[in-house]
Amino acid sequence: MVPQREQIMAMYRVQFHTGMSVTQLMALYGTQEQCEAALEKCRWPAGFVCPMCTCKEHYVVWDGKAKTFQCQLCRHQTTLTSGTIFHSSKWPLTKWFQAVYFLTQAKNNVSDLEPMRLVGVCYRTAWRLKHKILDVMSERESERRLEGLSLFDAGHVDTAVYDWGWSYKFHWGRHVAGALFALHCWSLKNGQAQHQY
Fold first, then answer.
1. 162-189 tens-digit pLDDT
2. What is the dihedral of CA 188, 110, 154, 175, to 10 degrees?
3. How far apart are CA 110 and CA 102, in angstroms?
4. Are 113 and 126 contacting, i.e. CB atoms less than 8 angstroms apart?
5. Interstrand relation of 58-63 and 165-172 (parallel, antiparallel or unpaired)
6. Nearest Cα to 132, choosing from 101, 107, 106, 99?
7. Do the Cβ atoms of 67 and 48 come closer than 8 Å?
8. 17-43: average pLDDT
9. CA triplet 191, 196, 197: central angle to 5 degrees?
10. Which of 20, 47, 76, 175 is the one with CA 20 to 30 A from 182?
11. Measured CA distances, 31 to 27, 40, 82, 105 (Å)
12. How confident is the model at residue 37 (pLDDT cuts 50, 70, 90)?
């Protein structure tokens, strides 16, 4: 029996969002200079603004390779990375951008070994990169609240171990003995899904 057109669930477009490829990442943020330019544009889209007095007039002072912005009015000095997750880091921005990319592109949890292998850093560095990025993401999401109509659905993932590995079967609704609990939430506004958790 072929389902009627009305009975077929509409495709959720966010699922099929193409995102950014690794090639595009390297083309846009492959060098330290490209990363610095992107960060400067992101921090100050309309040009530098002093964080102390909001004056726009400034000097650029070079301390070795570090670009420092000095306000003409209050003489406060600010680096490009001050007040960000990248502040006082020995790692180049290219490594940070790559780590952010790989952590945000994954649909599931990323082990600490993944950034080590993909970004090319030692385990300790990979662990720090991952946890700093996750802390910032968590801090940003903590302020987000659901609004409009919110839909929740729960299910259970029934797991079984076989000689060849694990098997998963998803069940919506009632509890299945020995299964893991899963919760899915959509926040709808004007009939469109705004957030998914």
1. 444 444 444 444 444 554 555 556 666 6
2. 180
3. 9
4. yes
5. unpaired
6. 99
7. no
8. 88
9. 145
10. 20
11. 9, 14, 20, 20
12. very high
Cα distances (Å, whole numbers) of residue 99 to 76, 147, 190: 31, 31, 35
Find out whether 129 and 91 touch, Cβ atoms under 8 Å.
Answer: yes
The SS3 call for residue 79 is strand
Tokens of 149: 């109509």
CA distance 29 to 35: 5
Q: What is the pTM of this model?
A: 0.64
Tokens of 3: 């389902």
Query: For residue 104, what are the β-bridge partners?
Result: none
Nearest to 58 by CA among 83, 78, 39, 29: 78
CA–CA separation, 69 vs 80, rounded Å? 8
d(CA 74, CA 55): 8
Amino acid making up residue 197: Y
The token duo for 75 is 């003489």
| Alpha-helical regions (H) of the chain | 22-29, 32-43, 93-105, 113-115, 123-142
186 beta partners: 151, 196
Spatial CA neighbour of 129 closest among 142, 145, 110: 110
What is the sign of the dihedral through the CA atoms of 37, 41, 43 and 44? positive
Tokens of 140: 């940003």
Rounded Cα distance between 42 and 5, Å, is 45
